[in-house]
Amino acid sequence: MSITGQQIRTARAALSWSVRDLADATGIGTATIVRYEMAETRVPKSRKNNLEILRTCFEAAGIEFVGTPDDAPGLRFHPAEG
Q1: Could you tell me the residue ranges of all domains in the chain?
Q2: If you ran DSSP here, which 8-state letter would residue 49 be given?
Q3: Alpha-carbon distance 77 to 11, whole Å?
Q4: Cα gap 58→9, rounded to integer Å
Q5: Nearest in space to 26 (alpha carbons), one of 48, 1, 4, 2
Q6: Which member of 7, 9, 15, 43 lies 3.0 to 4.6 Å from 37 by CB, making a disulfide possible if both were Cys?
Q7: Where is the HTH cro/C1-type domain (predicted)?
Q8: What confidence score (pLDDT) does residue 59 get?
Q9: Distance between alpha carbon 4 and the CA centroid of its chain, in Å?
Q10: pLDDT value of residue 21
């Protein structure tokens, strides 16, 4: 399932992560992350599996992506217990 630039930006904000925090957690460059986030409601173009890496990282941190890019894309936040 694809994720939008807005979902990436919102997930990062929900976790109170900076672009640098996300880059450090995923190994994806800060410029690439910013480019993805600027895609707004579109699915960012990605030549590598960067979107899958981002999604996996966010999911491990408690973010659940819902909807589709064309139909009510959003997220649910499941904060860690304790």
Answers
A1: 5-76
A2: S
A3: 8
A4: 11
A5: 48
A6: 9
A7: 8-37
A8: 96
A9: 8
A10: 98
Dump pLDDT digits (tens) for 12-71.
999 999 999 999 999 999 999 999 999 876 777 777 899 999 999 999 999 999 988 888
User: Residue 45 — φ and ψ, nearest 5°?
Assistant: -75, 135
The per-residue pLDDT for 76 is 94
For residues 68 and 22, the answer to whether their CB atoms sit within 8 Å is no
Q: In whole angstroms, how large is the CA radius of gyration of the chain?
A: 12
3-state helix, strand, coil in the chain (%, to 5): 45, 15, 40
Element (H, E) at 10: helix 5-14
Q: What is the pTM of this model?
A: 0.87
Three-class DSSP category at 18: coil
CATH T-level assignment (fold) for domain 5-76: 434 Repressor (Amino-terminal Domain) (1.10.260)
Structure-block tokens of residue 73: 């894309």
